[in-house]
Every structure is written in structure tokens, then in C-alpha cells.
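Researcher: Here's a chain I'd like modeled. Treat it as a single chain, no partners, no ligands.
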Amino acid sequence: MTPPKSPSNPPHEPPPIEVRDVTLSYGQRIIQDKLTFTVKKGATFIIMGGSGCGKSTLLRHLIGLHKPAAGTILRDGHDLWNCDMKTQHKIRQASGTMFQSGGLWSSMNLAENVAFPLQEYTNLNPREIKELCQVKLALVGLAGFENFYPAELSGGMQKRAGIARAMALDPKILFLDEPSAGLDPISARRLDELIIELRESLHTTIVVVTHELQSIFTIATDAIFLDSATHTMTAQGHPRQILQDTTDQNLIDFLTRGTGKTDRQQAI
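Model: Modeled as a single isolated chain. C-alpha cells:
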């Protein structure tokens, strides 16, 4: 599969996400310190790093679920924590999130799961909502599964249904937390292909938390590496370019599964 091309942010338009000197902490315990990076419009942006480095914590901050201990996170040029409630609501509504488990309500079938945000945040009538649910589920390869419940689906299908619900309101930004975790290799590859297809066909900016190397090298247009030892970001760029250029042994070990091969480009 040909790696996606890196997008460029349109001139005179603020990037979807801009992080400036952000510190993440739980009380006195610093998780990541002085993070600074930009997510360009139309990117598939990977937050990568080993277990416990703060990937999912950073994602929750980018979404707006947690306020950073220090620094600024801008969404479309607006500081989420220093703008009026109307702007905050608009920013949050312009993003969709799929959490690690898929986050589907077990008591609702797939159509009802996808319909929920449409019922809550739009004035669409039941017929329009039903049609949109069918479209969103078809978009992720689940046409005809509207009346199935999450327990009746495979893990990969549940993940795709979670993406369909996250896409319900046509978000500008899609946040995916460990989308391929727990999937078999074939299902994980299909999910990677779906992510690329969504980015290319809908021009959605996608932010993905993962430590799955195959996904990282397949879907990324840009990435950052969070180092658990130094508690900060130690690299940004396309993963293959990072691997080619870096002399950081922690980063080399992560991107080569600890093999440290001389020809690091062939690690995957």
C-alpha cells in the first residue's frame, strides 16, 4: 500500500489543532512536558509511543475533556479553555471520537447508536436520520447491519461501527484511540484502509493514538513520538523519515521492535 502524502495547511487558515508548550499532569505527577506541535488540515496524525507514555491522556486533552496543567491547545485558532461557551460547543461538535473499545451502547442496535448524536444535536426528522444512519454505516462497510446489536458483531465490525457513529455529524476532526487494538491482522489492515479512504474521500483530519507499527507506517502522514523516559515529545514527522534520521535509541527501538537494524527502513 502506498503511504499517504503529507497535506499542507491552506494559507491564511488556522490549523485544526495547535499545541503550544503544553504540560499534562495528574496532580504533581507530570505525564508529558512542554509539548509543541501542529496538526495540519487533512492529515492522518499519529500519536505514538510505548505503553504508559501518555498517548491517550494527550488525546483527551486535544478533544477537550481535560484542561492542560500549563500551555495552550488551539482548535481552529480558538483556545478551547479561554473562549465563550457557544464557541466551545461549536468546536466540540466539529469533532468525532472513537474510544478504544468502540464505545457503542450495548442496548442499542447500530442504527440507534449512529442516530443518537443526530437526535441530540440536529433538527433532522426521523426519516432523514434513518437515511443518514444507513449512509454512515455503508461508508464503513456495514450496509445491512443497521438492526444488529454490538454483541452480535466481530471486534473489527464493532470498531467500524464506532467510527460510523463518530462520523455521524460530519466532523472536521476524527479522533481514534487505539483503533486496531485487539484485532487480528486482516481486520487491522481493513481498518487501516478504511482510515485512509475516509481521509482521502472526505478530507477529514484524523488523529490516531496507536503503538501498532504496521498501522503507523501505513496510514500516517505525520506523527509525534512521546518518550516515557524524558516525559516529552522527542520527534515529529513522517514515521519513515523519523526512523531514517533519528539517533535516539529509544525511538529506534520503538520503530524497529527493538531490533535496531542497520537498514532501519526495512524494519517493517
